[in-house]
Amino acid sequence: MTLAHFLACTAAKQPTPGGGAIAGACGALAAALGQMTVSYSLGKKSLAQHQELLSDADKRLTRARAMLLELANEDAAAYAMVNELSRLPEGDPRREQLSLATLASAQIPLALAACSLDVLRLLSTLCGTTNPHLRSDLAIAAVLADATVKASRWNVVINLPSLSDAARRTAMQEQIDGFVRTSAALTHDIESRCREGW
């Protein structure tokens, strides 16, 4: 769908697309913007010593973009399934699938956060190795990736109380909290380096 249609669907009174799809789209934008800084750096004589790194980053960001969009779609599908199953009357045999659907609704944003964190780590390697005229774009890419991690935390946490396995709840909570801390530190570092002009 077009961006305008996606925004209209998000604004409408319907369960999907919601926060998870938005988080995934935001992460994909972060990867795309990071990739733009790479595109303006590939082939530059002044950055000749970084061409191998840049070529690898280009491929990895292409994969990350696709993965983040796929996870956005999966998140919307998982939430739609939870919404559908939770509306079924008690005793309906299909309600047995609700626990698995709820688990998926927590695992998918966790995967979104992990993927966005990988994007941030990659963006960090682009500080000082890409065209300095695009350092504001690199910083914005980091901010968007960080926002994806933070947004994904909300989607993990909102689903945890519905999980019956206490050990799994604790592990997922600790994992997403760790992702948020690491993301904040990476983003701060990238912004600082971009602000200083490398």
Q: How many DSSP-defined strands? A: 0
Uncertain runs: none
- Give a short account of the largest sheet: none
Radius of gyration: 19 Å
Number of domains: 1
* CATH superfamily label: Formiminotetrahydrofolate cyclodeaminase monomer, up-and-down helical bundle
Overview of the molecule:
The chain has 198 residues and is mainly α. The protein has a single domain, classed as Formiminotetrahydrofolate cyclodeaminase monomer, up-and-down helical bundle (Four Helix Bundle (Hemerythrin (Met), subunit A)). Helices cover 75% and strands 0% of the residues. It has six helices and no strands. Helix 3 (51-86) runs antiparallel to helix 4 and helix 4 (98-126) packs antiparallel against helix 5 (135-157). The chain is elongated and about 70 Å long. The mean pLDDT is 94.
Structure characteristics:
single chain, 75% helix, mainly alpha, 6 helices, Four Helix Bundle (Hemerythrin (Met), subunit A), 0% strand, 198 residues
